[in-house]
Design goal:
This protein is an alpha/beta fold. Helices cover 29% and strands 18% of the residues. The N and C termini lie far apart (39 Å). It binds threonylcarbamoyladenylate (TXA) and magnesium ion (MG).
Length: 316
């Protein structure tokens, strides 16, 4: 495995059907030629991801979009105009060109144009849409640095190192209905921002299999993680615990504290939360991770979604 910043070499690898981990503004992706089923199959294998969990395609231009979808819905272009390049994934009816392996047999495909110059250049030079899930083993913590990728996926063919990602949590995923949009996964682009373009359709509740990303356990460190408001649960030895601290109010007694934001900014929580989980996961002196919860409004919804999924396994 190579880890450098040579986009030309990485693009050649993509063309040859190999796997390239690359930075986006959200998290690192594990990329392959999205039109080559053999290459896409390698993603599922290396990530140990079940084949029923579909991948999203990353594009660098709207011309590419047109070839991948079977809709001329004007709303798609309104949303693209406002939010692309950026951390928004749209689930849309797929064209024949998209291999079934990418979508796990679904008639829809998730597509986004990432706002990271390295990612855009890689896609352009590769000359194809790049299929990419987050570059972690299935169910584990998402990577926000090249080192995180190397830790979980040492066998990837190539890692493009673009430094730490600037958003830190995965894209907001939406689909369109007759009435407007529905959020399938929360992210840094909030419902309120989307509502400046389209109404939110609250009618039909989301069935779990239609949004596989809504699996209850996800993003889990290999150590017990609890939210600090589950007071009943953490009568623990704090001398072996790490705290992900937001307000600074809970910091006494912990073995190690990571202050996630200097000025209680939710954006900083998103940017730094996975890195904090990685740091505590890698620290042999730590047995328990405690995370300070945040109010569930705006970006706080996406942050609490990630924390609850990291916690889920341990609450039974
Ligand atoms: O920010 C991101 O979205 C990152 C970066 C690398 O772009 N990617 C990412 O991919 O988070 P992944 O595979 O870890 O999460 C994408 C989620 C999956 O949970 C998948 O179930 C859902 O999107 N998804 C993909 N295609 C779908 C579809 N056609 N319908 C419903 N959900 C879909
Ligand atoms: Mg993921």
């Amino acid at each position: 495995m190579e880890r450098t910043n040579n986009i030309e070499t990485a693009a050649k690898y993509i063309q040859e059907g190999k796997l390239v981990a690359f930075p986006t503004e959200t998290v690192y992706g594990l990329g392959a030629n999205g039109l080559n089923p053999m290459a896409v199959a390698k993603i599922f294998e290396l990530k140990e991801r079940p084949s029923f969990d579909p991948l999203i395609l990353h594009i660098a231009s709207l011309d590419q979009l047109k070839e991948l979808i079977k809709t001329t819905d004007e709303r798609v272009y309104q949303l693209a105009e406002k939010f692309w390049p950026g951390p928004l994934t749209m689930v849309l009816p797929k064209s024949e060109r998209v291999p079934d392996l990418v979508t796990s047999g679904l008639p829809t495909v998730g597509i986004r144009m990432p706002a990271n110059p390295i990612a855009l250049e890689l896609i352009s030079q590769s000359g194809c849409p790049i299929a990419a899930p987050s570059a972690n083993k299935f169910g584990r913590i998402s990577p926000t640095t090249a080192a995180h990728v190397q830790k979980q996926l040492p066998d990837v063919d190539y890692i493009l190192d673009g430094g730490k990602t600037t958003v830190g949590i995965e894209s907001t995923i939406i689909r369109l209905t007759d009435k407007g949009f529905q959020i399938l996964r929360n992210g840094i682009i909030t419902r309120e921002e989307l509502e400046t373009v389209l109404p939110c359709d609250e009618q039909s509740a989301i069935e779990s299999m239609e949004a596989p990303g809504m699996l209850k356990s996800h993003y889990s460190p290999r150590k017990k993680l609890l939210l600090a408001d589950d007071t009943a649960n953490w009568q623990a030895d704090l001398s072996k615990a790490g705290l992900i601290s937001f307000t600074g109010k809970l910091e006494n007694g912990f073995y190690k504290v990571i202050r996630i934001s200097q000025h209680e900014e939710l954006k900083d929580y998103a940017v730094n939360m996975f890195e904090a989980m990685h740091t505590f996961e890698d620290d042999d002196s730590i047995e328990l991770i405690i995370a300070e919860p945040v109010p569930e409004t705006g970006i706080g919804i996406a942050i609490m979604d990630r924390l609850r999924k990291a916690e889920y396994d341990w609450r039974k």
